[in-house]
């Protein structure tokens, strides 16, 4: 195991190229982006979970890089996905909160058309693009996946869905392209099967698969095939959650297995994250040793399982501790594909590949920022300043010494508080106001 990253250093600047142009697809890597929903920091075997085996997801880390300080840009679903798809802090374009409920779909909630997605950019580079799972970036036709760069789509547009009832939410159906699906077996299985089918059909060209499972988001639903694996777990809620997680691990395993069968794994970049921390009381997820849960800018809401595999380019078994963020996956995927970003792209994410191969040293980021309504935070090296909900006082932590955010140093280091607060305020002043009122955090 290689462990990297112990002190903060200034980040090199990521140069932006003049334009994105389609090139020959020969030799381009396939790219698979897998997003778990509400998965806690400690929910995987490789992250310390002991009662739910996740051997398939764990192999991504063992065959590649596991990021112990991997973050998302928001502690809830939709804003994180907006940042992930664009590589930009979603506050730059007003996507600070979850969109309004499906009943308000006639309003223009969702990812603005002015913000290019990674699918749109990869499609211009000759990639076949498919998405299978949860979108949560808009309901209007022009905001849905087939209009945002994806050739194929099987999934739902909203924030949550039953795993076993295709018709449980009439305003948020499951779609195959533009056709409503009237029955499903188990959505986790179906999303994985669709991804496997897409890989099979596009094996002779570079492809981008976006696989955002709705697992392990509530409602807690499973089928006997998976529940029977956990008869030793007596708590019904934990047993169901374990079964749901095991199903997702099987789904990831089927995707990895198809890559191996087709001899595509060596030249496939595989990215895995959760969209936010776990809602521990609701689902029995675990964010230990972190403090906080989904919906909070404490570490438990924003630090997530984060891993990357590319066998032909990246070393296996590396543990990388410098802070990274889901925004980085857009420029990383573009760099892997040989794409050039427009000069006016102004991404906040950084191409991580040269940091992982040793071409660049130090930390990819000087600071990371969060703003979620009245909550906000900044991480600068080992220091984190955080403003939580319903608490007028800011809190200061040294995360290297206190990953659980238990020892508030604000009174001892007022100089550091002032420095970080000023830096955060300068960043926040560059962001725009939210484009819609806050919806619920549950999705």
Folded structure, characterized:
It is a single chain. This protein has 443 residues and is an alpha/beta fold. Helix content is 24%, strand content 17%. It has eleven helices and 17 strands. The strands form three sheets. Strands 1-12-3-11-10-2-9-5-6-7-8 form an eleven-stranded mixed beta sheet, with helices on both faces. A four-stranded antiparallel beta sheet has the order 14-15-16-17, with helices on one face. α4 packs parallel to α6 (236-261). 50% of the residues are buried.
List keywords for this structure.
443 residues; alpha/beta; Alkaline Phosphatase, subunit A; Arylsulfatase, C-terminal domain; 2 domains; eleven-stranded mixed β-sheet; 17 strands; 24% helix
CATH class of the largest domain: Alpha Beta
Q: Per DSSP, what share of the residues sits in E-state strands of 2 or more residues?
A: 15-25%
- Rg over alpha carbons: 20 Å
Count of domain modules: 2
- CATH fold descriptor of the largest domain: Alkaline Phosphatase, subunit A
Number of helices: 11
The helix content, as a percent range, equals: 10-25%
- N-C termini distance: 36 Å
Instruction: Kindly name the structural category.
Output: alpha/beta
Question: How are helices and strands ordered from N to C?
Answer: EEHEEHHEEEEHEHHEHHEEEHHEEEEH
Q: Label the CATH architecture of the largest domain.
A: 3-Layer(aba) Sandwich
**Quaternary class:** single chain
Largest sheet: 11 strands, mixed
CATH superfamily of the largest domain: Alkaline Phosphatase, subunit A
The residue-averaged pLDDT reads: 93
pLDDT < 50 stretches: 6-24
Instruction: Tell me the total number of β-strands.
Output: 17
For the biggest β-sheet, the strand order reads 1-12-3-11-10-2-9-5-6-7-8
Shape: globular
């Amino acid at each position: 195991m290689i462990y990297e990253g112990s002190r903060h250093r200034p980040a090199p600047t990521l140069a932006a190229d003049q334009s994105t142009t389609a090139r020959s697809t020969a030799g381009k890597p396939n790219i698979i982006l897998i997003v778990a929903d509400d998965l806690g920091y400690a929910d995987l075997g490789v992250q310390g979970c002991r009662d739910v085996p996740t051997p398939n997801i764990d192999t991504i880390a063992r065959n590649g890089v596991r990021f112990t300080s991997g973050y998302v840009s928001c502690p809830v679903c939709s804003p994180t996905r907006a940042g992930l798809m664009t590589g930009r802090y979603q506050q730059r374009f007003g996507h600070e909160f979850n969109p309004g409920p499906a009943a308000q779909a006639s309003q223009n909630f969702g990812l603005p058309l002015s913000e290019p997605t990674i699918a749109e950019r990869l499609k211009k580079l000759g990639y076949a693009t498919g998405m299978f799972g949860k979108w949560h970036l808009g309901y209007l036709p022009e905001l849905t996946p087939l209009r945002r760069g994806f050739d194929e789509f099987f999934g739902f547009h909203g924030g949550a869905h039953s795993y076993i009832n295709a018709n449980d939410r009439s305003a948020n159906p499951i779609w195959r392209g533009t056709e409503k699906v009237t029955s499903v077996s188990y959505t986790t299985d179906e999303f994985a099967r669709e991804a496997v089918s897409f890989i099979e059909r596009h094996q002779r060209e570079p492809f981008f698969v976006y696989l955002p499972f709705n697992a392990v988001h509530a409602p807690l639903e499973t089928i006997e095939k998976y529940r029977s694996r956990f008869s030793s777990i007596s708590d019904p809620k934990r047993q169901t959650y374990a079964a749901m997680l095991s199903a997702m691990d099987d789904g990831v395993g089927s995707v990895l297995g198809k890559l191996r069968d087709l001899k595509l794994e060596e030249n496939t970049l595989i990215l895995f994250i959760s969209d936010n921390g776990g809602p521990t009381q609701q689902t029995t997820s675990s964010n230990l040793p972190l403090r906080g849960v989904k919906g909070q800018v404490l570490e438990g809401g924003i630090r997530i399982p984060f891993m990357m595999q590319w066998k032909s380019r990246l070393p296996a078994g590396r543990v990388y501790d410098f802070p990274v963020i889901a925004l980085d996956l857009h420029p990383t995927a573009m760099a892997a594909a040989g794409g050039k970003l427009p000069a006016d792209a102004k991404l906040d994410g950084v191409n991580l590949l040269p940091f992982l191969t040793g071409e660049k040293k130090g930390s990819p980021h000087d600071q990371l920022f969060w703003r979620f309504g009245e909550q906000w935070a900044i991480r600068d090296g080992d220091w984190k300043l955080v403003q939580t909900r319903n608490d007028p006082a800011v809190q200061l932590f040294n995360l290297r010494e206190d990953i659980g955010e238990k020892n508030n140093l604000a009174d001892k280091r007022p100089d550091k508080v002032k420095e970080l607060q000023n830096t955060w305020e300068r960043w926040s002043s560059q962001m725009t106001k939210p484009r819609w009122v806050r919806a619920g955090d549950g999705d």
